[in-house]
Amino acid sequence: MKRHADLIIYLKSKGLRMTPSKELLIQFFLDNKNRHVPIKELYDYLNKSIEDVDRTTIYRNIEKFISLGLIQELDLPRVGKVYQYVFDKKIHHYYICKSCGKVNKGNAALFEKIEKALKDIHDFSKANLSMLFYGFCSKCDSSIESDTSI
Prior knowledge:
The protein is 48% helix and 18% strand. By secondary structure, it is α+β, with helices and mostly antiparallel strands. The strands form 2 sheets. Strands 1-3-2 form a 3-stranded antiparallel sheet.
């Protein structure tokens, strides 16, 4: 598990200039590792510590953290975009129902097969693999089928 100081060292090694807003965001994600956090909550958190924080700054930091594999963006039906810390987690694969919005963590065995196929077919090794699948859960899928049969 990474600590705040470890992540700052890592991010600096990737050429990221540390600012008070970045440091606060890192700590926020570490404190909320197992949650899906909406952008408004990030904004409110930063705004309490940094007066008149600019939304553009937050979005730029979020995009940078995503590109470095620190966090992952999920687009949840009925909720919108949320962000989750994934840097030192083993699995962060999800399948999400587009109708009811239920989020399920993926099965490790399935993703091991996908990783093996990527290596065998494309000679691509896992770096920080993350996958999102959007579809319909069995409950919503059956209600969609019954609606179309009328």
